[in-house]
């Protein structure tokens, strides 16, 4: 095993230990800097997604008069608004902690925009983690319906990035 892979394995174990510490102590975030030498260090930010609890009333609405039926799109839009987007079958989530980039380089056009057609395997964005650019592929073919992150935004494991239908 090389020195570099031993260091990587130790870093992964260190990050996993931080995640366990975060959960065991009911913390929301940890920031740690580990120095290996004068020009070599590891900066780690481990955080937990805050759950926002909302209460939805399920009381039945008063029946509408027969002469004024509700438009067909209204119930669908209301159902989509109340559903958690992360549970959508087309949800694309971050596989790692890092910084998300929507284009291959500053000033370049975005990989995808809302309405873009993608094919399974197409790069939809990049997540930079530990100075490595990780291309995030489309899990399936379809149309990009929503994008939840901005260029250069920090993301965590499981952060909702976009929806592809």
UniProtKB/TrEMBL annotation:
The keyword Lipid biosynthesis applies. The keyword Ligase applies. SUPFAM superfamilies: Single hybrid motif. Pathway: Lipid metabolism; fatty acid biosynthesis. One of its GO terms (cellular component) is acetyl-CoA carboxylase complex. One of its GO terms (molecular function) is acetyl-CoA carboxylase activity. It comes from the Bacteria. Residues 69-80 have a biased composition (Low complexity). Coiled coil: none annotated. GO terms for biological process: fatty acid biosynthetic process. Residues 58-95 are annotated as: Disordered. Residues 89-165 form the Lipoyl-binding domain. InterPro entries: AcCoA_biotinCC (IPR001249), Biotin_BS (IPR001882), Biotin_Carboxyl_Carrier/Decarb (IPR050709), Biotin_lipoyl (IPR000089), Single_hybrid_motif (IPR011053). Keywords: Biotin, Fatty acid biosynthesis, Fatty acid metabolism, Ligase, Lipid biosynthesis, Lipid metabolism. Gene3D superfamilies: 2.40.50.100. This protein is a component of the acetyl coenzyme A carboxylase complex; first, biotin carboxylase catalyzes the carboxylation of the carrier protein and then the transcarboxylase transfers the carboxyl group to form malonyl-CoA. NCBIfam families: BCCP. This is Biotin carboxyl carrier protein of acetyl-CoA carboxylase. It comes from Rhodalgimonas zhirmunskyi. The lineage of its organism: Bacteria, Pseudomonadati, Pseudomonadota, Alphaproteobacteria, Rhodobacterales. The gene is accB.
């Amino acid at each position: 095993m090389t020195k570099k892979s031993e260091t990587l394995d130790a870093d992964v174990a260190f990050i996993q230990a931080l995640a366990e510490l975060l959960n065991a102590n009911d913390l929301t975030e940890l920031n740690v800097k580990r120095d290996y030498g004068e020009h070599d260090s590891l900066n780690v930010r481990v955080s937990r997604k805050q759950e926002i609890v909302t209460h939805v009333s399920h009381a039945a609405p008063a029946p509408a008069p027969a002469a004024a039926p509700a438009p067909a799109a209204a119930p669908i839009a209301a159902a989509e608004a109340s559903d958690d987007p992360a549970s959508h079958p087309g949800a694309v989530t971050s596989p790692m902690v890092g910084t998300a980039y929507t284009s291959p380089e500053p000033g370049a056009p975005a990989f995808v925009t809302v309405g873009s057609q993608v094919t399974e395997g197409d790069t939809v964005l990049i997540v930079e983690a530990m100075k490595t650019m990780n291309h995030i592929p489309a899990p399936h073919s379809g149309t990009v319906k929503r994008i939840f992150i901005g260029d250069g935004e920090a993301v965590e494991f499981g952060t909702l990035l976009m929806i592809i239908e």
